[in-house]
Structure formats: structure tokens, C-alpha cells
Specification:
This protein is mainly alpha-helical. The chain has a two-stranded antiparallel sheet with strand order 1-4. It has a two-stranded antiparallel ribbon with strand order 2-3. Helix 5 packs antiparallel against helix 6. It is globular and about 50 Å long. It starts with a helix and ends with a helix.
Length: 332
């Protein structure tokens, strides 16, 4: 009798779909993920330049890492360039001077960015709102001036001629296509990790903190601990993105640690769709494509980006993918 009652309990369609989806994807998300996979596999053979694609994927991972913090915890950081740029400097130094293989150099960049995020996050999460944002910006500027003066960063010249090396000591990454598959793998691992975090019990607590932190505290959750862990994870993934970018282009410069880079990742996330899984990737694709194909217009690229930002704020505040998801009544 008990088994009959258990079997009779109705299950919502969304629950069935989520349970059946791979990696916790709902059906619309899984279809979107398949499209993303198809793009990653087919893009190099469709006439798109591999270096351009690698830049897009590095910034896509960077935007996803930033979105983990602002989109799911509600913490606006104006200093994420510190972790992105420092990850690039550490990876470049480890690959060129120490002689580490590319996978270890990328891990070193992510580890240092995570450590930096742990210290800065511990300081910043003591405040909320605009105070939190300003503290992160101030701390990031400290990192910028450190990079200007530190001997290992090369100052204004940066670290140049960073070797791509051999993956696991076996696969030469000098050819762009070989490096592309490594960057695509790093991006997919980071993307799936973020998706898993968001849809885990930890991710549900992050969303609760975003929606109503006092209520989450009243339920017994130590919200500062959750925010700090989310900050560290976001910083680590941003560092991995920066480390990968430095190996792709063979250079780590002050541009990646400058405050304007923090503004770019905010723009990418908002244009794509704040709080969506795939939105930051779309936003990064839009901004990077504009920078690449409109570069001959000079400073007008920045003006166009500003116009797009204003349009997003005024016309479609959910972002490109957010508006599509709302139109189709699905979660992306």
C-alpha cells in the first residue's frame, strides 16, 4: 500500500526534465549546450580564425566566472581584472622563466588568482552594495600598481614571448589549431564546473543569499562563508581564463589588469544576460567580435559599445539571451 502511495505522487514536468537532462541541464539548456558544442567543433573549419576563437573562449570563461558572482550571489565586483590579469602574469612567468608545461602554468595562474581572491574577498564581503564594489575596485587598483612596479611582470613592457610549450610534455601547442583544442577544453571544463556549482545545493544557497540575505541568515546559513567561497571560485576561474589567454597570445600586459578590463566583463555579462548560464558566453562573443571586426574604426568601437550598453539598460534589461529565454518561457 505504501509503495502504491509513493508511486502515485505526481512529478512536475520541470522536475522530470531536469532529472533526465545530462549534467543537470534542462531540455532547452541541453539543446543550447549541443549548439555550443557544435560551434566549438565546427568553427575552426568554417573559416573563422583560430586565434580569434581562442580569444572569444577566454573572455567567455572570464564572463562566466564573473557572472557566478554577480548573477547568482548578487555581488557586483569592479575588480575582477585583478584576478584575470594576475593569472596571466603568473602563467606567463611560470611558462617562460620557470619552464612549467602549459597545463601546470594555467593551474598556477588559477591558484594564485584563487589565493588573491581569498584575501580580497575576506576584506570585501564585510560590506554590501556600492561599498563592496568600491572596495573591490580599490583592491584591484592596488594589484595594478603592484604589476607596474614588480620586477617579474616587466612593467609597461609586460612578459613577452611566452612559450606555449608542449601539453603534458608530448603535444606541441605551437600550431594555432592544436592550441585551440586545449583552449576549448579549458573553456568547457570551466563552463560545466560553473553550471554544476549553480545547480548544486551550494548554488541554491547562493541564490537564496541573492534574493534575501537576512532570510537566509535566519535559516541558519553562514552567508559570509558562502559569499567568500563563491568569490574564491569566481576569482580562480577568472585567473584560469587570464592564464589561458596569456599562453594563446604569448604576452601578459598591464591591459589585462587595468580597471577598464573589469568594465568590459561587466558589459559582456549584461549584454549576454545576467544570471543566465549561457548569457555571458553570448555577451563575450558580441563584444569580442565587435572589437575584432570594427578595430579599424578606432575609438568609435568604445562609443558603439557604450551605445549597446545603454540600449541594454533601457530596452532589454535581461540581455540578449535573457530576453530570448523570457520570450520562449524557458531558462537558459
Amino acid at each position: 500500500m505504501a509503495s502504491q502511495n509513493t508511486a502515485a505522487v505526481p512529478t512536475l514536468p520541470e522536475e522530470r526534465t531536469a532529472a533526465q537532462g545530462a549534467f543537470g541541464f534542462t531540455k532547452p539548456q541541453f539543446l543550447t549546450f549541443l549548439l555550443l558544442l557544435a560551434f566549438l567543433v565546427g568553427a575552426p573549419f568554417a573559416g573563422l580564425y583560430p586565434v580569434f576563437l581562442m580569444k572569444l573562449l577566454c573572455f567567455g570563461l572570464f564572463a562566466c566566472a564573473f557572472n557566478l558572482l554577480i548573477g547568482y550571489v548578487g555581488l557586483l565586483s569592479f575588480g575582477h581584472a585583478a584576478y584575470f590579469g594576475m593569472g596571466g602574469y603568473i602563467a606567463g612567468h611560470m611558462a617562460k622563466v620557470v619552464g612549467l608545461s602549459p597545463e601546470l602554468a594555467i593551474l598556477a595562474g588559477g591558484a594564485v588568482a584563487a589565493g588573491l581572491g581569498a584575501v580580497f574577498g575576506w576584506i570585501a564581503i564585510r560590506r554590501q552594495g556600492i561599498y563592496f564594489a568600491m572596495i573591490t575596485l580599490a583592491l584591484a587598483q592596488m594589484v595594478y600598481f603592484f604589476c607596474v612596479q614588480a620586477p617579474f611582470t616587466g612593467g609597461e613592457d609586460g612578459i613577452q614571448a611566452i612559450p606555449r610549450g608542449k601539453l603534458f610534455g608530448l603535444i606541441d601547442l605551437s600550431p594555432d589549431l592544436s592550441m585551440y583544442w586545449v583552449v576549448a577544453a579549458v573553456f568547457l571544463i570551466g563552463f560545466l564546473l560553473i553550471h554544476r556549482i549553480v545547480h548544486s545545493p551550494f548554488g541554491q544557497v547562493m541564490k537564496a543569499i541573492r534574493e534575501n540575505e537576512p532570510r537566509a541568515t535566519s535559516l541558519g546559513y553562514r552567508t559570509d562563508d558562502y559569499k567568500l567561497v563563491a568569490f574564491i571560485l569566481s576569482s580562480a576561474l577568472a585567473g584560469v581564463a587570464g592564464a589561458t589567454k596569456s599562453l594563446v597570445f604569448g604576452i601578459a600586459t598591464l591591459t589585462d589588469v587595468h580597471w577598464s578590463m573589469s568594465g568590459e566583463v561587466v558589459l559582456m555579462t549584461l549584454v549576454g544576460g545576467l544570471g543566465t548560464v549561457f548569457g555571458p558566453v553570448v555577451g563575450a562573443a558580441v563584444i569580442v567580435t565587435m572589437q575584432n571586426y570594427l578595430a579599424e574604426m578606432g575609438a568609435w568601437v568604445t562609443v558603439i559599445q557604450g551605445g549597446i550598453f545603454v540600449a541594454c539598460v533601457l530596452a532589454f534589461r535581461r540581455g540578449i539571451l535573457g530576453e530570448i529565454a523570457a520570450l520562449l518561457r524557458v531558462k537558459l
